Structure formats: C-alpha cells, structure tokens
C-alpha cells in the first residue's frame, strides 16, 4: 500500500508539460475554414441568383413558388461537399460543427439575398393591395356616403397614382384624401327624389412601378332606407308598446333618441327580417303623463381595416344613416315602468391582427431544419465524449 502511495506521489510531483503547439497545422486548418465559409457564401449567392430567375419566370400565378424555391435550396445543399472535394479541400477532420457552419452560411446568404432580389427596387410584380369599404351602401337623402380604402404596396403609392370615377365622371384630386395609406372620399347626397338614385364608382390605384389595381361597385340614395313603422306617429306610448324600426341596409347598430337625448339601442326582431325593436322601458323615456316626445331613428355602419392602427389603437371607420322624419308621440296615462330599464349594449365589429401564413410556414420549416441539425450535432458530441 505504501509503495502505491509513493508511486502516486512521484507522479503528482512531476512537472506539467505544455503540449507542443503545431502552428503550421493550426494555420492550415484556419485557412481551410475561411475558404469553406467563403465558398459556402459564394454558392449561396449563385443559387440565390438562379432562384431569382425561377421566381421571375414562375410569376405571381404560382402560389407555391416560395416552397418550391426552398426545396431547391435544401436539395442543392448537397453540392457543397462536391465543390469542396473538387477544389481539393481537406475534409478529413471536418466535424459536424464545421458542416453546420458551412450549411448555415450557405442557407442564410441564399435567403437574405433572395429576399432583397424579389423586392423593390430590384423587382416588383405585386399590384397594390386594396381593401375598400363603402359606409353605408344605402343612405337616406341628405346624408353622406363615405368610401374608405386601405392601400398598401411594396413599391409605394402616391396620391397622383389614385383616380376615382363616379358615373363615368372623374373626381378632382382635391376632393379626396390619401394619408397614412388610407384613401377617404365623402360623397354628398344629391337632391332628394321619390326615386332611388344609384351611383357606380371605379377606384384605380397605380403604384410607382406602373402596376394597377381597380375596385368597382355602387351605392344608393333612397327615401326609404330607415323608418319607424310601429306605432303610428301621434299615438300614445306605454311601457309595453313595441317600437319597431325597419332598416333596408346592412348595418351594425340601430338606435334612436327621445327629445334629442342619449342614444337608446334597439335589438334585432327575430320574427321579421330587417326589423329592430325596443320599448319605452329604457332610460331616456320621460315618465310624465301626457308628455309629448319627439323620436328620431338612426343606424350605424362601422368597419375596421385589418392590422391598421394609429397610436397603438385600431381605427374605427363609420357612418350614420339618419331618418329625415321626426316622429311625435305622447306618453300615455300609465307611466309604470317607463324609463326604468338600464340601456342595452350592441356587439360591434372590432379590429384584429391577421398574419401572413406563407411567411410563417417558411420560418417554421427553417426552425425545424435548424433544430434537427443542432440535436444531431449534440448527439454526436455526446457519443465522442463516451
């Protein structure tokens, strides 16, 4: 036992010797790694230019072209090894880490350059994207019809590239607004008529690359868009009496006022299409016997453009339909329950974010490939340690 301890002590007392540093081997290896990185990047540039040609030839009518190009990039990664061998690069001590570095350099150079190539100012094949809404599509005489459009384009839009025609008449540029990608035009009501009046519109948007998008449609003015149909004007009102409003347009909310007070919402009448119902139980109705009241009815149409915010808030675009008729009623003798109920609320549209699923899919595939390579590298290292 003492002999073993003595031998162990002698081994510990031996001075530590630094391993000899092979400078020539180190420099050769580093030069090789630099050359590999440069060739990987160069191959990525070459393939990116090649894929850009395919991208332009396939055109926008090929919806899956990004996926096809991604498959081309992955498949051609195998040529890296062939290129290294042809150029007499020593791969005898090439590790998984070296391969991962070479492939990552190739792939991300390919991806970044291709994204630059397929976008302006180098390439533009995307017409402007236009989300247009008319609020409302039917309006009472005396009201306005608002046309809003969210216009986006990768090359850029100028106001001079926008033109609006209504009934084949070009609207002067000074009469509409284009700000923060939002086009706004307010159409004033024509002179009232017993007949409906319909207007056809054409909105044309041309980007700075000369690519064009058109939106067409129509809107109508009428005397009979909204009206209070029950009870008859001049009659007495009690709490149990239904107040029915008819709206011949697609809207989000119907409401009315009593003596120009606060708005009182009406709810959809399940028994009749386009009808909304309320009664005198809601706050805003005066519980005064024989009191004369004036009722005015309104409808609201609202819209939110996807992903459009100002000051971190979704912007609401809306317009109101107002009945030109004022309805006179008298509160009846029985004022029980009149004006006692709390006001009801109506669900309105809300702003929302919508992401681009195609881009997410590409990122997801890249993430999967990257994770697979990382796990493979770690597993190989664990085996080497054992």
Could you please describe the fold and organization of this structure?
This protein folds into 3 domains: 95 residues, no CATH class; 94 residues, Immunoglobulin-like, CATH 2.60.40.10; 106 residues, Immunoglobulin-like (Sandwich). By secondary structure, the protein is an alpha+beta fold. α2 runs antiparallel to α3, α2 runs parallel beside α5 and α5 packs antiparallel against α6. β14 and β15 form a beta hairpin. The relative contact order is 0.11.
CATH classification class of the largest domain? Mainly Beta
**Number of helical segments?**
6
Total number of domains: 3
Strand coverage percent: 25-35%
CATH names the topology of the largest domain as Immunoglobulin-like
Task: Give a quick rundown of the structure.
By secondary structure, the chain is of the alpha+beta class.
Give a topology summary.
Elements: H1 2-13, H2 23-58, H3 65-76, H4 79-86, H5 96-117, E1 129-135, E2 138-140, E3 144-152, E4 162-166, E5 169-170, E6 176-179, E7 182-188, E8 197-206, E9 212-222, E10 226-230, E11 236-237, E12 243-247, E13 253-258, E14 264-268, E15 275-278, E16 292-303, E17 309-310, E18 313-314, E19 317-322, E20 327-331, H6 357-385
Parallel strand pairs: 2-9, 11-20
Antiparallel strand pairs: 1-3, 3-7, 4-5, 4-8, 6-7, 8-9, 10-12, 12-15, 13-14, 13-16, 14-15, 16-19, 16-20, 17-18
């Amino acid at each position: 036992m003492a002999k073993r301890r003595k031998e162990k002590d002698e081994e510990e007392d031996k001075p530590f010797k630094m391993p000899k540093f092979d400078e020539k081997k180190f420099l050769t290896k580093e030069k090789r790694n630099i050359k590999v990185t440069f060739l990987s990047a160069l191959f990525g540039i070459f393939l990116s230019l090649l894929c850009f040609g395919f991208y332009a030839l396939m055109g926008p009518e090929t919806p899956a072209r990004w996926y096809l190009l991604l498959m081309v990039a992955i498949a051609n990664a195998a040529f890296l090894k062939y290129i290294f061998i042809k150029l007499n690069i020593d791969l005898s001590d090439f590790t998984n880490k070296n391969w991962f570095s070479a492939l990552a350099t190739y792939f991300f150079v390919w991806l970044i350059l291709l994204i630059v190539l397929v976008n302006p100012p180098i390439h533009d094949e995307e017409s402007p994207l236009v989300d247009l809404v008319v609020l409302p599509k039917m309006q009472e005489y005396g009201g306005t019809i608002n046309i809003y459009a969210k216009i986006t384009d990768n090359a850029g839009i100028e106001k001079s590239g926008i033109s609006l025609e209504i009934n084949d008449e070009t609207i002067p540029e000074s009469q509409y607004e284009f700000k923060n990608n939002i086009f706004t035009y307010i159409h004033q009501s024509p002179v009232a008529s017993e007949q409906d009046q319909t207007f056809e519109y054409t909105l044309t948007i041309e980007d700075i690359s000369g690519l064009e998008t058109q939106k067409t449609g129509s809107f109508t003015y009428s005397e009979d868009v909204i009206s209070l149909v029950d009870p008859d004007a001049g009659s007495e009102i009690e709490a149990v009496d239904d107040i029915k409003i008819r709206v011949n347009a697609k809207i989000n909310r119907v409401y009315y006022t009593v003596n120009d007070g606060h708005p009182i919402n009406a709810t959809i009448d399940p028994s009749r299409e386009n009808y909304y119902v309320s009664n005198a139980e809601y706050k805003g109705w005066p519980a005064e016997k024989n009191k004369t009241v004036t009722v005015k009815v309104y409808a609201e149409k609202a819209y939110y453009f996807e992903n459009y915010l100002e000051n971190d808030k979704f912007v609401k675009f809306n317009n109101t339909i107002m009945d030109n008729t004022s309805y006179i009623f008298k509160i009846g003798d029985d004022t029980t329950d009149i004006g006692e109920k709390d006001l009801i609320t109506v669900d309105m549209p809300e702003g929302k974010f919508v992401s681009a699923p195609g881009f997410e899919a590409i990122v997801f595939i890249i993430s999967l490939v990257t994770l697979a390579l990382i796990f493979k590298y770690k597993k190989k290292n664990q085996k080497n340690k054992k």
